[in-house]
Specification:
This protein has one domain. 67% of the residues lie in helices and 3% in strands. It is built from 19 helices and four strands. It has a two-stranded antiparallel ribbon with strand order 1-2. The chain has a two-stranded antiparallel ribbon with strand order 3-4. Helix 1 crosses helix 15, helix 6 crosses helix 12 and helix 6 runs antiparallel to helix 17. The chain is globular and about 70 Å long.
């Protein structure tokens, strides 16, 4: 596709700020939602800091040659919950998060060493376009249900782990907000001038939030719960928890995991470590296919094979060490984010300087209390409207990769069918605490099917 800014380009400073802010907003809702789901004191601000620090390290290790953003990985949700299972103390659970993420990150480091030795040719043989195309499409399709669910939901974010309550908003009102967000995003991208076309996600979120806030104000004035979408009380709960104004109301240090983990060192046991390693390591191996798929997807968008330059060994190293850093500060292993890839596709901005600025923004804004309150107050329906476009672009990117595949050949149809149907049908596999996601399962089945039918070539 035609890019407005290539990988090595540097957007003008004022435009760079808006592009970086858009990149941040696109990934922050999911990044901060994971620690809220985990609970036990895992901090959204610390996870945001960890995502920024992990992405910064990834960019350095890839030589600023891959515009990928790393955020909190939902693939490891079950593993993170297992760290606190059995009534362990918060300190030991926090230490378990670090141990597990370190083990998962080292799996990627080992894989990077293997790839360095044997090259990436085997990937092309195992995952030709007929496999990787629909596998990428499934990444978007598997998230379609989440996007639609978010479109129907008010401000769940404000209620998760904060003691707040979810406003009982009408489904029709939330869908209106979601559609406003989507329509503004589409109009900005298709009909906007050169500047507006670069920040459609940001404009869509601002428009959707403004409409949601308007409905909420009307609901408060008229005492109509169905119109209340935004939980404005999140600002007072976050900035003025004791009812007074202080420095912490504006600037506060996130609750970093490594500080709390110190209390768990004395409780650490061999059996607990084995439990954590058993949970994390298999998931890291399963996530390897998603790492390749995301980088293949991004490669098709930027018109450059990122598995060759900067190289899969470097992206794996960046992803693995980025996960360790992310968990050390925020408890959440990091992973490549489809929302960030969609940002590149929709805006034509592949500048790694933008990604670098976004990572630094995450690090800095993690200390800014009002910004964290604003992120927490973002209605799910607004993000649902954004996700319809984002996940759709991911799906379209995957389908674009099979446009040169001969669909008159049954063997190709079988490979594509197996991946799309098992992935869209959300076939996942559970082995105790280990879950093989639908994306990973569909990709593996696609690879096996391709190997089966390739004998007829």
């Amino acid at each position: 596709m035609k890019l407005n800014y290539g990988i090595s380009d540097r957007p003008p400073f004022p435009r760079l700020i808006s592009l970086a802010l858009q990149q941040m907003m696109a990934i922050l809702t999911a990044t901060t939602a994971l620690p809220m789901l985990i609970g036990h004191g895992v901090s959204p601000a610390a996870a945001m800091f960890g995502a920024g620090a992990g992405t910064f390290l990834y960019l350095l290790l890839t030589g600023l040659k891959s515009p990928m953003f790393l955020g909190s990985s939902f693939t490891f949700l079950g593993c993170m919950l297992a760290a606190f299972a059995g009534g362990v103390s918060v300190g030991l659970g926090m230490l378990g998060l670090i141990i597990g993420a370190t083990a998962a990150g080292l799996v990627y480091v080992v894989l990077a060493i293997v790839v360095k030795k044997v090259g990436v040719g085997w990937i092309e043989r195992l995952m030709p376009p007929v496999v990787i195309g629909p596998s990428i499409a499934i990444i978007g399709l598997s998230l379609a249900g989440n996007a639609v669910s978010n479109m129907r939901t008010g401000n769940v974010m404000a209620a998760l782990g904060t003691g707040g309550s979810v406003p009982v908003a009408s489904e029709y009102v939330t869908i209106i907000c979601a559609l406003v967000t989507l329509v503004v995003t589409i109009i900005s991208s298709v009909y906007g001038n050169n500047i507006l076309k670069l920040i459609p996600f940001l404009l869509g979120m601002v428009a959707g939030y403004a409409v949601a806030a308007g409905f909420t104000v009307a609901g408060n004035v008229l005492n109509i719960d169905a119109l209340k979408i935004v939980d404005f009380e999140i600002f007072s709960r976050t900035m003025f928890p004791d009812g007074t104004v202080s420095l912490a109301s504006f600037i506060s240090v996130p609750d970093f995991v490594f500080i709390k983990a110190i209390d768990g060192v004395s409780e650490l046991s061999v059996s607990y470590v084995i439990t954590i390693l058993t949970a994390y390591i298999p998931v890291a191996l399963a996530a390897f296919a998603e790492h390749i798929g995301d980088h293949k997807n991004l490669s098709s968008i930027v018109g450059k094979d990122l598995l060759t330059e900067p190289g899969l060994e470097r992206t794996l190293l960046g992803d693995g060490l980025g996960s360790i850093v992310g968990a050390f500060f925020g408890g959440c292993p990091n992973t490549t984010y489809g929302e960030a890839i969609a940002c590149v596709a929709l805006t034509g901005n592949a500048s790694t300087i933008t990604t670098l600025a976004a990572s630094l923004g995450c690090i800095g804004f993690a200390f800014f209390t009002p910004f964290m309150a604003f992120i927490s107050s973002m209605p799910s329906c607004v993000m649902g409207g954004i996700c319809v476009a984002a996940y759709g672009f991911i799906t379209a990117s995957g389908l674009r990769m099979i446009q040169n595949v001969d669909l008159n050949e049954n063997r190709n149809i079988f490979v594509i069918s197996v991946i799309l149907i098992t992935g869209a049908g959300q076939l996942s596999l559970n082995f105790g605490a280990v879950t093989i996601t639908e994306v990973a399962a569909a990709t593996v089945l696609g690879i096996l099917t391709n190997l089966l039918v390739s004998r007829s070539r």
